[in-house]
Amino acid sequence: MKPFSWIVTALALAVSVGAPAQQKSAADGIAEYRRMLEDGNPAELFEAKGEDLWKTARGPKKATLQRCDLGLGPGVVKGAWVQMPRWFADTQRVQDLESRLLTCMETLQGFDAAEIAKTGFDKGEQATLAALAAWISAESRGQKLALPQAHAEEKRFFELGKRAFFFRGGPMDFSCASCHGEAGKRIRLQDLPDLTKNPGDGIGFAAWPAYRVSSGEMWSMQRRLNDCYRQQRFPYPGFASDVTIALGVYMGVNAQGAKSIAPALKR
Amino acid sequence: MQRKHTLFALAALAAVATTGLVTGCASRPTPADLDAQALAMIKASFRDQGIAKVDRLNQDLGQAACSADKPPSDDVALRVEAEALASIRWPAGGQYIGDWREGEKLAQNGRGMTWTDSSAAPSANGAQCYNCHQIGKQEISFGTIGPSLYNYGKMRGVKDVADPDSAPIVQYTWGKLWNSKAYAACSNMPRFGHARLLDEQQLRHLMALLLDPKSPVNQ
Amino acid sequence: MADPMRIRAQVAGDKATVRVLMSHEMETGLRKDAAGKAIPAWYIQEVSAKLNGKSVLTAEWGASVSKNPFLQFSVRGAKLGDKVAVTWKDNKGDTRTDEATVS
């Protein structure tokens, strides 16, 4: 064997034996996988569907959602997502997007909001909500979270959300804070954002709704909170119930100024 | 004449100011009000689903004490820890150690106790240890919510679990697994024995994973 | 009729990069439902792309391609204003064609 090629082979062997620690390459590998996924987010398919559903006359009243007020006036969609949840004078309630869509689907289109709230995710009109959430959040893509805290009820819901966030319960004594109360932690290899503060652009509250590749599903914030509570071993949170809205206020206000990347792409 | 007007004006101002104060207090809830409102909101927002019933929202002393963004006072924390310590059930026959191979399987398994699980029996549950801890060196998919347990027994000088010198560590480890709050009132770790998540035999297997000198954790 | 594809075609130099998102369940046929019955296979078998009516790509897919598949390819000689048409056909005989303009 020629001396040069022998040296090359020896060097190659040396490099492979002295390879970096397993942890770094696993994290690198996952980061690379996530970068590869960034292009072609199937959430776009849901955005297209959502825009269509907003503009189509549907329901017993055969009406579109184009007069739905998401907080910036009837029919104004651009910029509305990053200011929710917020207080609505017509319902005298603090509402998040899904709750507000239930209101509009009932008052404008004649759907039964209670029925939709009872329907399982991705079925019937719940699929409509997921698509609408994808499109409406897309209309605020890149904008900074700016939830209003002017109304007394908005402030109260922030305080209620904070208490709900730290509420320990269930057979494992978990609260939201158990996983999301500290920076720099992860569960298995999944990084956990600290939701008591602003975790940064496109992270935490600013990263949902999102398309989940592992299950091929479009998840709204309500869906994300539902699965959080399932993993916390809590009982079942009512769809668009006050505790879910209050948590949205708490997380959203904490993340004030963070850029929304919704609808995002998740593992 | 002027003094009377001034006095009247002052009185009127005082009346308005007092009214304003009273109105202000009535419309702004106190922290205690908000605590009560939050509790009521939580209770009203959930329903039963599968094995996950709303009674899971009933908090015991420790859960309630550790539900704020600040830790509880020292005396409350000590009370929680004392109650937790007293709740520990030591293993039958003084047998602390099982099979580390079974322990590793349990440590890898994160299932159980959710509303999509069909049974709440310990046999249906995993110990989910790798969710929060590094344990064996081979497993790179580990969490960092809890400290690393790699070389757990070795680092603590446990060469023979039957040796009386090892007893304090063996008992502490069992106690921590049974009721983690015995040693830290607001520990993030579930109370595996006390909450009936795992049974004695499963806990013995986890003990072996951590303390058996032959366990890969201690190589 | 299946949901429309999202197609974007961007020109850079003498090539155009075409990105396609297809809406399809891509069921492998190996999954079982809650009752234990196998969910029938339902996936795209053929994909083809045309540039101004001329075939530039054909592909045979199988069950291993994921749900809502994303396809990216580059075409040489594409110019601004050219028409890109993408067609898929699945194992049930269902088919869909969508078009986009190179921009």
Give an overview of the whole structure.
The complex is a heterotrimer of chains A (267), B (219) and C (103). Chain A has 267 residues and is mainly alpha-helical. Chain A has helices at 3-17, 22-37, 43-55, 97-107, 113-118, 124-138, 152-166, 176-180, 221-231, 242-254; strands at residues 86-88, 93-95, 185-187, 190-192, 210-212, 217-219, 236-237, 264-266. Chain A is built from ten helices and eight strands. Chain A has a three-stranded mixed β-sheet. A two-stranded antiparallel ribbon of chain A has the order 1-2. In chain A, helix 3 (43-55) crosses helix 6 (124-138) and helix 7 packs across helix 10. The termini of chain A are far apart. Chain B has 219 residues and is mostly helical. Chain B is 44% helix and 1% strand. Chain B has helices spanning 2-27, 31-45, 61-65, 74-86, 100-108, 152-155, 167-178, 200-211; one strand at residues 46-47. By secondary structure, chain C is mostly beta strands. Chain C is 0% helix and 50% strand. Chain C has no helices and seven strands. Chain C has strands spanning 6-12, 15-21, 44-51, 54-60, 70-76, 83-90, 95-101. Chain C has a four-stranded antiparallel β-sheet with strand order 4-3-6-7, with no helix packed on it. Chain C has a three-stranded antiparallel β-sheet with strand order 1-2-5, with no helix packed on it. The model of chain C has no long low-confidence stretch (mean pLDDT 94). The chains are: A mainly alpha (267), B mainly alpha (219), C mainly beta (103). Chains A and B meet through helix 2, helix 7, helix 8, strand 3 and helix 9 of A and helix 2, strand 1 and helix 3 of B.
